[in-house]
Amino acid sequence: MRKLARMIADGDLVGALDALDRPAEFDGIDVKAARDHLHGLPAEDRAVLTRHLAARYAAETDGDPHDRFLLLLRALRLGHGLAEPPLAAERAAVVARLGGQTDLWWGGLYHPDLISAEIAEGRTVPPAVWATIRRSFLLTYADPEVAELNHLAGLTPGVPPLNVGEQWAEQALAEDALRPVVVHALTATAAKPTAKWDRAARAAVEAAGGADPVRTAVARWLALAGRPRTFPLEGADMPNHLVFDPYNADALRGLAWLLSLLPAHPDIPRALGSLAEAALRKVPGAGPGSAKVASAAVVALARAEGPEALGELARLAARTTHKPTAKMIGTALDRRAEALGIGRDEVEELAVPDYGLTAVGTGEYPVGDHTARLEIHGTRTVLAFHDSTGKRLRGVPAAARRDHAETVKELKARAKDADRMLTAQAERLDRQFLARRVWTRGPWRERLLDHPLVGSLARRLIWTVGEESALWDGAGLSTADGRPVEPAPDAGIGLWHPVGRPPAETAAWRARIEELRITQPFKQAHREIYPLTAAEETTRTYSNRYAAHILRQHQFHALAAIRGWRNKLRLAVDDICPPAVRELPRWGLRAELWIGPDAGRIPGPGDFIDSGTYTRLRTDQLRFYPLDAPENTAHCSGGPYTMRLRDGRAPVDPLPLTEIPELVLSEILRDLDLFVGVSSVGNDPEWADGGPEGRFQEYWTRYGFGELTGTAATRKALLERIVPRLAFADRCSFEDRFLRVRGDLRMYRIHLGSGNVLMSPGDRYLCVVPGVSGPDPGYLPFEGDRTLSVILSKALLLADDTAITDPAIVSQFP
Known about the structure:
Blueprint: H1 2-9, H2 13-19, H3 31-39, H4 43-59, H5 65-78, H6 88-97, H7 112-120, H8 127-139, H9 144-155, H10 167-174, H11 179-185, H12 195-207, H13 211-222, H14 246-260, H15 267-280, E1 282-283, E2 287-288, H16 291-303, H17 307-319, H18 323-340, H19 344-350, E3 362-367, E4 370-377, E5 380-386, H20 398-403, H21 405-430, H22 432-435, H23 441-449, H24 455-458, E6 462-465, E7 468-472, E8 477-478, E9 493-495, H25 503-515, H26 534-539, E10 550-552, H27 553-562, E11 576-577, E12 580-584, E13 589-597, E14 616-626, E15 632-635, E16 642-643, H28 662-679, H29 697-705, H30 710-722, E17 732-735, E18 738-742, E19 747-751, E20 757-759, E21 764-766, H31 786-799, H32 807-810
Helix pairs in contact: 1-2, 4-5, 8-9, 10-13, 11-12, 11-14, 13-14, 13-15, 14-16, 15-16, 15-17, 16-17, 16-18, 17-18, 17-19, 17-21, 18-19, 27-28
């Protein structure tokens, strides 16, 4: 320390400053005291030091960013009060770059001092930097320097009330007349609105011009929520730049609440439902974009006026897989059911809007001299225009666009709403097999068969009517052999299922469906059944039928949620996880699929995503327990499952598979078949090399060309009936697990399970990656089997192999 003091006393200030970077050379040096001494020097001495630091900063252009930043900070602190602040332009450039960061600490560098200096010197801080300050305050609100900057954001003129960078926020900021609404929306910091908040919201609406302009503007803003940012952010807290800005999330919550206070209008539930879906959209490594915003949308729908709001809740109930939000939706529907004195299922059925359809699957609307028609084709709603002669036009007529723009806009919105509801209702109906739902004639016709929207699904399904089974044939209900059926008023009506039915009846229904050219919304007549096998009778309490498969974890997780399973993503952490579980309250049962990460070795590249979540899972046993049995868990990194016993509870054994009702066992095994068929790495045509380090080569080959699962066997049976009707049928034949296709260049074998292709000579693998839209496979008797369409598209392509021009395929021909 004496040596450093002598340097200062001798006037070697620059040497003393540089010595602080080498404290090991000075015994007993007190770096803080030395810096405080330098900071207290006269202005002319400090000016010398700051010029030296500026020179070092300029010389270290390619140096360590952290070291350069420290030089900038030193120059800032030594230069306090100087007439010419040191490195001012460089400091302003660093501050400006902060607007592209998630927070003020990214990269290990601490920036509040720089921003405070800019403010103290009267410089303008960019709006994007104020946005970073606000985010930083929410992430670490205890930091006093950031808290002070965040406080200044609310006091500094010209600072936008919303964080810039999100499309919806920048649109809202551009509409200055709506500023009172935005400012009040930012006060939505609680989980639910209070009466006081609502009163202030109504006053803000009046100050912004009234309900109509506010509704129109806010609905337009909310439609932009969750869209890609207007500029990217760096930092780990916002992967892919898709997570909602945490500061703006309060404003979105307030805007959702505010919409629910306005008079009923179709735009309101439409905007709120879309907002909930956008907020729940999964961001890799981060989860939902904003669960808080999704919850606000549900709260708003629950208190909004009009039947459309209830319908949107019912739609979200069928589609939402995020557990906390799904629970909120369920609570809202349960309360509505209690208020009406009916069951939850009935509320969901009664809540489905007709979207203006005037008959089952159709609706006509005059638009000037033209007629617009909404027509449901499968699970798609098509908007078409016709002229005065009835001729269908290719698009929207110019006169309709010009003179009836609002009507055309509303019709397009209805078509989109109907599409989303159709998907949700198809999934809800598919789940009714295990729900054991039974209707009497009146409610069944009103809510299902004759409902303008749901009827387009129900009239393509087979129903049990008392002791008979019947289908809508275009004129009425009839049996598989065409005999008319008229349900009695008190007849129990439910969905027909092939389990327990004579094979001849199932075959008759398949033939009838295909004869009428009906495309069912999901597999029913062609639904797979999974009887107990000899191996399962031997294992007695568990099934290994779908064990030892390698699944893509996130794809499995999403699909399991859609099918009603409860699952927890496996992360590389010291924690425990339950198996994937499907609860069956109507049966008093719980199905468990035991799964674990692809472990048993040291994980390597590609085994995780950035969040630490395992990329792949390995399947194990399927078991059944009583619904109230204690939970089983295993370590997140793998290992055996054990039952967690609390409060002195005794262990509960798994139930023998012979005691599981045939329908339950079949439907649960069908779910497992679906999980494997969709998310297995074995059906990926680009994994012919076995994936990372070739580890999955044996599995990929075994799955991609091995024995057919139940779904694949049903696919083969259907193809054996469809292929003979095709124009290129003479080039096709069946061989065990394959569809053989004779091209002009090669002979091909398409596996009926995976859709993978082998070609002659020598059964070499041919990689054909299916496009988003391939050749039209023609009529199919059900929707939802993408692999079936892929196989038919590949067969059509390979039968005319001399016409193939795709270089990725042609290059594989020897």
